[in-house]
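Q: Sequence in, structure out?
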Amino acid sequence: QVQLVESGGGLVQAGGSLRLSCAASGRTFSRYVMGWFRQAPGKEREFVVAITWSGSSTYYADSVKGRFTISRDNAKNTVYLQMNSLKPEDTAVYYCAAHYSGSYYSTSSYDYWGQGTQVTVSS
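A: Exactly. Output:
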């Protein structure tokens, strides 16, 4: 069992930066692929980025490549999302998720979800 708690969301102007954190409970955190998804009002939840258990491989949605960076610290049971050059279209609730196997990109592959943190980018 893994419990996930996101933090770091907020209101920022376009072009600004935010760093999200996701703290995980459970001793098996290092075995899980960790992902970030987001959901804007009236839209489906969409994939943002994922990182393998070792951190050696990362997978990004085209819309955030070059602007967002995912990292993890297995010793701290934490995964981070550094978001730079934010745009109004990045406004959404951001969710941290964990899974052991399956597609990196599909919500249905992920077994555990956090409660989400709101990111609002003003123009």
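The chain is about 0% helix and 50% strand.
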